[in-house]
Amino acid sequence: MESRVIVGTMSGTSADGVDAAVTQITGQGLDMKAQVLLHHYQAYSPELRREIFAFRNDEVKSDFLARLAKLGRQITLATAAAVNQALTLAKLESKDIAAVAAHGQTLFHGPPDSIQWFDPALLAHETNCQVVSDFRRADLAAGGQGAPLVPFADFLLFRHPKKNRILLNLGGIANITWLPANCMQERVLACDTGPGNCISDWVCRTYGPVEMIWDVDGAGAARGQVSHEVVDHFLEDGYVALVGPKSTDGPAMIAAFERALALSKHKPEELNDLLATAAYLTARTVYESILAVAERVDEVIASGGGTRNKSMMNWLASKMNPTPIKLTDDSGISGAAKEATAFALLAAATLDGIPSNIPSVTGASRGVILGSITPNPSV
Fold it and tell me: Angle CA(245)–CA(323)–CA(339) in degrees, nearest 5?
């Protein structure tokens, strides 16, 4: 059986750094299997993280183009550093790698427009590897949302002959994949449910002390009180009630939260109350979305940084009870590496000339081959 190694990389909407998953992939097409040989995380510098959020939050000034070009280079060099360090730790060389899969950094997502910013030619130069990138654009061209794309990997890795499963990713944005028992690919449903960590992280950046980047373990949320008035106004804002296919982005969710705060007569003012409201809001919107797409759910399998927010997970568990919530780690797929692994599988499909979007998920008119291939310039 054919085997190849692809380094999948991912930087999500939380914009905290780059995950690199050195992934051994066997088989082709819908028979592909993935084994993570090594996962490495490369944090963005505080300066780079601030610059990303400046672009995502419309804080750029007259030097826009120069900053944009520099930002793309910095994101690419951070990705290259993650890949090269991962290969060193895995005791592999660039000649051992079929490709690097690189999603880039999302600066804007509002279908049919989307920007994943970085330079594939620079990454190919820095790693001496072929690069597969720009995964959203072909699906967008076919009328799809360009997201979520991970359900292709969810289907390959987690479908079960007897169990109805929800795959949940709690990144900056939360998304779910519905895999009914004995699932065929055309029965897969998925969507962005709304906020994951993005509102909680925004609360930390906006109302917390300078050094506060996120609510570690959901400890602040655990000490706060939920404003159900804010939650109700957020739910009335519209996104959760939309029928899929649908996708969203962090700035849109933050703006909706700000509107909900403005409409509330008794808005929370304490940091911990804001964090509690943000965490509960994520759990509530995930739960509402599961009810909208799924029939009887046997288990939820979760991954992403939000799984470390105990308050968020406890609220979700109480709503899903008695359905158990497990982690992808329990199935042998590192939660930290899961999305990067998914892009390694997407890149393998690109190299094989196999469509890897799922029209029932994205709303595309047809299945299309995703990604653009940038050759290794050293060959």
Answer: 50
* 100's tokens: 């690097």
Q: Tell me, rounded to whole angstroms, the distance of Cα 270 from its chain centroid.
A: 29
256 close to 286: Cβ distance less than 8 angstroms: no
pLDDT digits (tens, 9 = 90+) for 173-199: 999 999 999 999 999 999 999 999 999
The beta-strand segments (E) located in 237-328 are 299-303, 325-327
Give the span between the Cα atoms of 188 and 360, in whole angstroms: 7
> If you write DSSP's letter for every residue of 169-228 in order, what string do you get?
EESSEEEEEEE-TT--GGG-EEEEEEESSHHHHHHHHHHS-TT--S-GGGHHHHHS---H
For the stretch 8-38, pLDDT in tens is 999 887 888 999 999 999 999 899 999 999 9
Q: Which helix (H) or strand (E) holds 330?
A: none
Q: DSSP label at 113?
A: E
Nearest to 368 by CA among 101, 146, 142, 29: 142
Report CA-CA distances (Å) from 4 to 105, 245, 267. 25, 33, 54
Instruction: Please report, to the nearest 10 degrees, the dihedral formed by the alpha carbons of residues 302, 306, 310, 312 taken in order.
Output: -90
Q: What does the pLDDT read at residue 209?
A: 92
User: At residue 200, what are phi and psi to the nearest 5 degrees?
Assistant: -60, -45
d(CA 196, CA 169): 8
Q: How far is CA 235 from CA 136, 184, 217, 253, 285, in A?
A: 28, 32, 25, 11, 8
What are the tokens at 113? 């427009």
Angle between helices 250-263 and 228-236 (to 10 degrees): 120
Dist CA 312 CA 305 (whole Å):
11
* Beta strands, E only, the chain: 3-11, 17-26, 33-43, 99-110, 113-117, 131-133, 165-170, 173-179, 189-195, 299-303, 325-327, 372-374
Do residues 123 and 360 make contact, with C-beta atoms less than 8 angstroms apart?
Answer: no
